[in-house]
Amino acid sequence: MSGGVVTEIGTGLDRSGEPVIDCAGGFLLPGFVDGHLHMAQWALSRRRIDVTSAASASETVDAVVAAVRSGGPMSTGVVRAQGFRGAMWDEQPHKDMLESALPGRRVAITSMDLHTAWLSPSLLSDLGIDDPTGVFRDQYAIEVCSGIDDRIDNDLLDSYILDSTDVLAAQGVTGVIDFEYDDNAAAWTRRIAHRRPSVRVSASTWPVWLDEALELGRRTGDVVPGTDGLLRVGPLKVMADGSLNTRTACCHDPYPDSEDGEEHGLLLVEFAELVELITKARAGGLAPAVHAIGDRANTIVLDAFEAAASTTPGTGGRIEHAQQLRPEDVKRFARAGVVASVQPQHCVTDRDVADALWAGRRSIAFPYGSLHASGADLQFGSDAPVSPPNPRAAIADAVWRTDDGRPPWTASESLPLDVAIRAACGGRASVEVGSVADLVVLAENPRDLGNSDLRNVPIVATVADGRLTYS
């Protein structure tokens, strides 16, 4: 390797003067790329109270109380918990439940999918928010949590995030696309000035920072100056709908037993505004990446990509998640040159919720096999902290469609192993002379492994930009 590029591959190479890594006969792959995560939220979630096992709102509160009594984690004086899945709960979260259990305490609990934030009255008062329930969803939840996290000292947050890049390297990850709700290019420039991260970073832009990014001439794929080539401009992130577990993913068919006037979920951006954002971003050189989970949201987003293509040269962009699609929309991804950025771990963790809320519909849930058969470009991510950033598990979930011993869920939508590996490696199929020296060595050939063994096959070494980042 030289200059971050692979220069020779083979046996009997001249090793004089070069460091040698003993990979013990491991299997070489292009480095894994996590194509969708939230770095600050993931780094912070590793220091929050874990309530993923709670089966109700009351159990969630009990878990938080138990952690507080045992000296659980605090952040800027706020009790922070994360991980509940409330889609199937009979009892709805409410601020009064937190006040009764922890009177006067500032408490914020975030759902596993990051689309719901549940705050105590004291924290609401501290933030200057008057809300009858203390429960916020979708973009409001993101903004509320951002306001809480903004109180964390930048130096401390940056240290958490940079340490987390070392954890990613231990999972074989060499690059990420960070969709954190922040001015990501500026934040990562600051971090890289402090110390070199163990992964390359592609920094997304949200609409609130779009005009500034365009004025600065930022174009997707460009290296950000002063970052030693480790930071590139990423896509524009737009939210089109909510999430499955929050029952706000926008669907053609209504959710069962909905009585709140939002039986089809929520569309978070009007069609005309979405077309305008896509057009404006493309004209300035930013690739659009639009969050769309429900089938109606995906239909509308594909319509918007096609409408924008009629006025702006070029095609392409990304749909983040694409969890539910009508059959006629599947083939539109390849036709429009739109990447399906998917998170296979969601497929297995949400199978029961999807069966309960999306049953009996014409649309396909987590249609990876159909997308691949139609010629769509699939790229994998974790959406961490929603799922752990473990690309081996993502590959196994895409191939076997089960992670708990149950039969495969909708096995017809499974992917061939080679296709799943390529999607987990950011679209790279092999390592060749001239390739970027972003590499991972597994202890065994994944083609020789079953479902469980693939998830746990050891990472022998990770190399990013020609540097050993994990061994």
UniProtKB/TrEMBL annotation:
The record's listing under Pfam families reads: Amidohydro_3 (PF07969)
Q: Which GO terms describe its molecular function?
A: hydrolase activity, acting on carbon-nitrogen (but not peptide) bonds
Q: Which residues belong to any copy of the Amidohydrolase domain?
A: 20-470
Coiled-coil stretches are none
UniProt-listed InterPro entries: Amidohydro_3, Metal-dep_hydrolase_composite, Metal_Hydrolase
Sorted alphabetically, which PANTHER family does this protein's record hold? IMIDAZOLONEPROPIONASE, PROTEIN LONG AFTER FAR-RED 3
Entry protein name: Amidohydrolase
Which species is this UniProt entry from?
Answer: Rhodococcoides trifolii
